[in-house]
Amino acid sequence: MGYSTPQRQSLPVVNEHAAPMQSSDLPTDVVYAGREVCGELPMAEAREILVTNGIGGYASMTLANSLSRSYHGLLIAALRPPLDRTLLLSKLSESVCYLDKHYHLSTDRRKKHALKKQSTSTRTSRQQNKEREKETNGLARAETGSERPDFAPPIWRNDGISTALSKLHEDEVVTPAGFELLESFRLEGTVPVFSYSIADAVLEKRMWMKHGQNTVYVTYYLRRATQAIELRMKALVNHRNHHDRTSCVRPPFNYSANVGRNGSTVSVLFTTREHHETTLSMMISRGRADLTNEWVRGFVLAEERMRGLPHVDDNLHAATFVVELPPGGVVTFVATAESNASQISLDGEAELAMQHAYERSLLQKFEDARHRAFQRRMEFEDRHSCSESSPYSDSSRSAPVKRRRKRRSVEPNIKQLVLAADQFIISRGGGRSVVAGFHWFTDWARDTMISLPGLTIVTGRYDVARSILQTFSKYVSLGMLPNRFPDDGSAPTEEDYDNADGTLWYFEAIRAYYMATGDLELLVELYPILQNIIHHHCKGTRFGIKQDSDGLLRAGCPGLALTWMDAKTNIVYTQRDGKPVELAALWYNALNCMAFFAAELEKEDECDLFTGMADVNEQSFQEKFWNEEKDYCYDVIEGGSSQTERDSSLRPNQLIAASLNWSPLTEEQRFLVLEACSSHLLTSHAIRTLSPDDPRYQGVYLGDIFARDNAYHQGIGWAWLLGPFVLAHLRVFGNRELAREFVLPILRSHLNEAGVGQVSEIFDGDPPHRARGCIAQAWSVAELLRAWMATEMDDFFEDE
Questions:
Q1: Three-state SS for 639?
Q2: Domain ends where: 346, 377, 404?
Q3: What is the pLDDT of residue 128?
Q4: β-pairing, 191-198 with 201-209?
Q5: By residue range, what is the domain housing residue 128?
Q6: pLDDT confidence of residue 2
Q7: Which residues contact 730 (CB under 8 A, 6 or more apart)?
Q8: What is the pLDDT of residue 798?
Q9: Do residues 514 and 454 share a domain?
Q10: Beta strand pairing status for 58-62 and 182-188?
């Protein structure tokens, strides 16, 4: 298909009526960035997108369409779901010819020396490619002038007012600089929409992944133009673990590429050094594909450099896809690692409609869950109003008020968070699990159990919650859940069980699920497993985890970090061996959960047994953990070799004790804990892990892995802790409107920062509290949703 120039029209053609690529009933205005963000390179690169496929695969890049992490790419496939996450398609580097001018839409940071080598080698490789194409299957086009050569993009020079912000390292350049054409960015649900302004034309680009497949869709919609454009997409491919880097000097794979018979499909067969084969299939709904076979060197991964890690990557330019797109036209590009590539639909509009329908179904489940949660709460409070083992026996619920049933509407930010929650839910071995965070975490037991109530119960996905609880029950060993699963897909080893609290969060997750569903069948199924867990904790299990004679739980093993404050390289950075405060509280809560479960199953003797054990624990907690001098809890007691040692560090772990359904703290103690944490640990987006008054405090998360791990739990703020804070605040003051105020700042501002539409893992303890770590963290999203739901209960209805 040659490029032709239609007769110029007097005004741009706008396809307003069909609007084929929009969905008006999904949140579309929560995440938005205009020129003030998109046109500034540092701001555009500081914001990243994430789309996922529900089996561990994902796509991610910056708003500038640049690669700043080893984890950025258009298709990172989970080749053995949810593991073996492999970068296959790094990016599409797009350019447009319109009104006889050439525009580049992509943005790259490149090493200067690599760019010089590239320009020299390109001339040679292009001639070689032309000769090679003439010899293959008769698919090469004769040199008739129908091919338009690639036009080298100019080197970006920032002479504007933001030079100081956009300062580049001396050894790098930005070319091309497509962010300068990016008029706006928004999310339609979770689908990113890039809107490029090209003279008087507007080109919209969308991308999403097919749920349950290692398949990514990209559509281009020429919303406005006076004539057709020629769109060229350079497909840069790779084959490496998403943690690694590739060097074209010694690439980790061999490859062969072929164009299909229709001329619009390219297959790249990768063969690794271990002789594993993967086929990447790329296709386009209209147009042609030209093989290229050229290495593009020296991509600068700026975020990896900032983390003190190798930061240069090379990618293979395998092919260029070329299409003529008329005004109002849509073209679909698909890349897949699935074996049935020939059967994958190229109807981008239909596939996008399916994606929108899926997300609408998630929002409907959430709306149904809101109503069900209110009804279930009332039912259980009526049944257990006088019971000591009631999960609401210590509730702050105010007196019921009769209201007409008119449900309050949910603000769009919460709907966006509900959709964000879905991105962490994955399939594992026929069941379900939760990715702890993107980009580098897999599924961890602790993170999964803390996240389960917010990700699945608040959102009404009870079947997913049930599956997760059953999936993890299969891995209980010596009364413990594994901390993580091996990346190679093998069964967990002894070392993989190195956590003391994940198993205890399992009890709370089951309680939350049962409260929402009344699923007695699952409770019957899991109850013996829970009994086994209690038994092993009482007699002692791995890593020194054992109930002591005082009824409190002890844990500790040299060289290991067994609580959630688990940063460790060759040393443990936050030593908490002994009896950590949240471990004692979680054990107390687990015993009360067992008493409640036994009562539900009409096992009165066992109910009495667990209640008695909990009473002993509570008495010891009161005697040993309260710091009378400082009016808050010791963080750890009886650590090290001393049975009298007490750590008086002001940390947020006591908030967990204050917020759990069954708390070993008195009402006055909860107030004092909240007062101390509010005064020293609370920030607008997170809770600090250590008081700034502590000489060990570190308020900024930067540097190499040793510097970052040393700061990880020594003052850095964690968003997930806002959940326990809000729940504790609610229990102390009973003011839901006031408690909700503490989650509004992060809901209303942060969704447009870092991982857009998502919630980051951590934040600097020091102002301005910049987002750090994972751009999307499961328990951050989950705990915000759980906190929001807890503050909504009394305001569920409004008067008509």
A1: coil
A2: 346
A3: 54
A4: antiparallel
A5: 22-143+151-346
A6: 36
A7: 396, 736, 739, 790, 791
A8: 42
A9: yes
A10: unpaired
Residue 79 lies in a domain: yes
DSSP for residue 494: G
- CA–CA separation, 796 and 781 (whole Å): 21
CB 65 within 8 A of CB 105: yes
Phi, psi of 668 (to 5 degrees): -65, -40
Strands 32-33 and 182-188: antiparallel
Structure confidence at residue 88 (pLDDT): 98
Instruction: Supply the pLDDT for residue 102.
Output: 96
Residues of the chain with pLDDT under 70: 1-24, 118-152, 157-167, 377, 380-408, 641-643, 793-800
Contacts of 480 (CB under 8 A, 6+ apart): 497, 499, 502, 503, 533, 536, 541, 542, 545
Residue 678 lies in a domain: yes
Structure tokens at 303: 């975020």
Pair of tokens at residue 102: 């050439």
Distance, CA of 44 to CA of 185 (rounded, Å): 10
CA–CA separation, 341 and 795 (whole Å): 50
What's the rounded Cα separation, in Å, for the pair 411 and 706? Answer: 41
Show contacts of 738-745: CB within 8 Å, 24+ apart.
739/787, 739/790, 739/791, 740/787, 740/788, 740/791, 740/792, 742/682, 742/787, 743/784, 743/787, 743/788, 743/791, 745/684, 745/685
Contact 477, 463 (CB under 8 A): no
Q: Residue 444 carries which DSSP code?
A: B
> What is the domain count for the chain?
2
Side-chain-side CA neighbours of residue 659 (13 Å): 26
What pLDDT is recorded for position 372? 82
Verify that 336 and 392 share a domain, yes or no.
no
Residue 161 is predicted with a pLDDT of 40
Q: What pLDDT is stored for residue 137 in this prediction? A: 43
309 and 436 together in one domain:
no
Give the Cα separation of 15 and 6 in Å (integer): 18
Within this chain, do residues 375 and 334 fall inside the same structural domain, yes or no? no
Contact status, residue 715 vs residue 699, Cβ threshold 8 Å: yes
Domain membership flag for residue 15: no
pTM summary value: 0.90
What residues contact 373, with CB distance under 8 A and at least 6 apart?
Answer: 458, 516, 789, 793
Cα distance between residue 279 and residue 264, in whole Å: 16
At position 475, the amino acid (one-letter code) is: Y
- Given this model, what pLDDT does residue 124 score? 54
712 lies in some domain: yes
Same domain flag for 436 and 335: no
Of 346, 369, 394, at which residue does a domain stop?
Answer: 346
Alpha helices in 734-774 (DSSP H): 736-740, 744-749
Q: What's the confidence (pLDDT) of residue 143? A: 32
Q: Are residues 671 and 784 in the same domain?
A: yes
Which of 521, 481, 484, 536 has its CA nearest to residue 505? Answer: 481
* d(C-alpha 721, C-alpha 777), whole Å: 12
Beta strand segments in 439-569, E:
546-547, 553-554
Output the domain CATH number for residue 60. 2.70.98
Q: Residues 369, 339: one domain?
A: no
- pLDDT one-digit tens code per residue, 235-258: 999 999 999 999 999 999 999 999
- The torsion angles phi and psi of 551, rounded to 5 degrees, stand at 85, -5
The span from the CA of 418 to the CA of 635, in Å, is 33
Segment 668-714, tens digit of pLDDT: 999 999 999 999 999 999 999 999 999 999 999 999 999 999 999 99
Domain shared by 307 and 336, yes or no: yes
Q: If you count DSSP H runs as helices and E runs as strands, how many of each does the chain have, helices first?
A: 19, 35
Distance CA 467, CA 517 (A): 14
Burial class (CB in 10 A: 0-12, 13-18, 19+), 274: exposed
**Closest to 417 in 3D by CA, of 346, 359, 485, 354:** 359
CATH code of the domain in which 360 resides: 1.50.10.10
In 634-737 the beta strands, taken as DSSP E runs, fall at 636-637, 646-647, 687-688, 717-718
